[in-house]
Design brief:
The protein is built from 17 helices and 7 strands. Helix 1 crosses helix 4, helix 9 packs across helix 11 and helix 10 crosses helix 12. The protein is globular. It starts with 9 loop residues before the first helix and ends in a 28-residue tail after the last helix.
């Protein structure tokens, strides 16, 4: 292989990674996408790992009869061993003490979703997310400490979870009593409703509980579109593809009903629009996106296939507000922007700065203004993901 061979374009890499997100691999499409990357296919390995898609990309290339880069093969072997040995032990160490204490923990996201992937080890994870309502938090901590877990980060300082570690396993345990801090709440989906809807999940052991499919889909979409996430990782969309494609058919009417009731219709519609690239066939009529105005203009960038690979290099001034369904939720997010400033002086000045920036952004995104002007250069003191946008509908 010549070192002078050109690197694949970001568009070609993005196309290949989206193909890897599918539950059922389209072999011809993967071969075409790999060929479009040219002779330096290994350049896609870094973005795949960053997007937590390394094992999925290796699987897609293998099933398509394409040579799997050595790095992906080694990574897949490690992830498979962790999934078969480490994760089950970590789940037992976390769930058994809670079950023995008479608690019914809901396992969210990573471990619950990984059980629906076609092969072990395809879904990398760094922690286990467990949900119990706030009144049970202290009792759960006592049970976990008695089983050898130690607190690595308490829930103080606005955190909605306690992070624990155990010397026997490398995975952290996040014990949630909430889904986000008040200043990040773009919807009304809350822990009490999720816990009240819990159902036994035999895939994760006798003491584990999961969520009904419609609530799980809404939760996964809302997690991917959280204000500081902004659909930055393709693996969150792959999660949706694996959950939707596993088991019984999805009742999309129920998903839409939960999304509307929890004021998360836009973030769910955006997630499902992205998931169509991974083979998810949700009826677009049930999950409409804004058809015009500043919100549609703000979402166009996210709907670009290359968004996850470009997100860290472009401003996201307006995205968190466009994903919120109501003016009240946008107001909460705007107020919370000041909370995230690093210094007291910046927090006090933020409402004034926010008003000016929001007005400028709204003017640039209004229909009839022609091409939207480029985003301003990011302020190094205020990361773009924390900048406010407009509040008007």
């Amino acid at each position: 292989m010549s070192d002078a061979a050109p690197l694949p374009s970001s568009a070609a890499v993005a196309r290949l990674l989206w193909e890897a997100c599918r539950r059922h691999v389209d072999r011809e499409a993967v071969r075409a996408a790999a060929a479009a990357c040219g002779p330096r296919l290994e350049a896609a390995v870094g973005p795949a790992v960053d997007q937590r898609l390394g094992p999925l990309l290796g699987r897609a290339l293998r099933l398509a009869g394409w040579r799997v880069p050595d790095e992906l093969g080694a990574l897949a072997a490690v992830q498979r061993a962790e999934a078969q040995l480490v994760l089950p032990r970590a789940l037992r160490l976390a769930l058994d003490p809670l079950g023995d204490a008479g608690l019914e923990p809901v396992v969210m996201k990573g471990p619950a979703v990984a059980a629906r992937y076609p092969e072990p080890g395809l879904r990398p994870m760094e922690d286990i997310d467990v949900l119990l309502p706030r009144p049970f938090h202290g009792r759960a901590l006592e049970a976990l400490r008695g089983a050898g877990w130690r607190v690595a980060r308490p829930r103080a300082g606005g955190h909605y979870d306690t992070v624990l570690c155990h010397r026997a396993v490398p995975l952290a345990l996040e014990l949630h009593h909430g889904l986000q801090s008040w200043y990040e709440r773009a919807h009304t989906l809350g822990p009490d409703e999720l816990w009240a809807r819990r159902v036994p999940d035999a895939r994760l052991g006798g003491a584990a509980w999961g969520l009904p499919l419609e609530h799980e889909i809404v939760l996964l979409a809302a997690h991917a579109g959280k204000p500081h996430h902004g659909f930055a990782r393709m693996v969150w969309i792959a999660d949706l593809a694996m959950v939707v494609g596993h088991g019984p058919a999805v009742d999309w009417e129920r998903v839409a009903s939960v999304a509307r009731r929890t004021r998360s219709a836009t973030v769910v519609a955006t997630a499902l629009a992205l998931a169509r690239r991974a083979g998810v066939e949700a009826p677009a009529s049930l999950f409409p996106l804004p058809v015009g105005g500043w919100r549609r203009a703000a979402l166009e960038r996210v709907l670009d296939p290359g968004w996850p690979l470009e997100r860290d290099r472009v401003p996201t001034f307006h995205l968190r507000f466009a994903l919120a369904d109501t003016v009240w939720r946008r107001a909460v997010l705007l107020a919370g922007s000041a909370h995230e400033q690093q210094s007291r002086r910046r927090r006090l000045a933020w409402p004034v700065l926010a008003a000016g920036q929001a007005t400028a952004r709204w003017r640039g995104l209004r229909p009839g203004r022609g091409r939207r002007p480029p985003d301003p250069a990011p302020d190094p003191r205020a990361p773009d993901a924390r900048n406010p946008s407009v509040l008007s509908a």
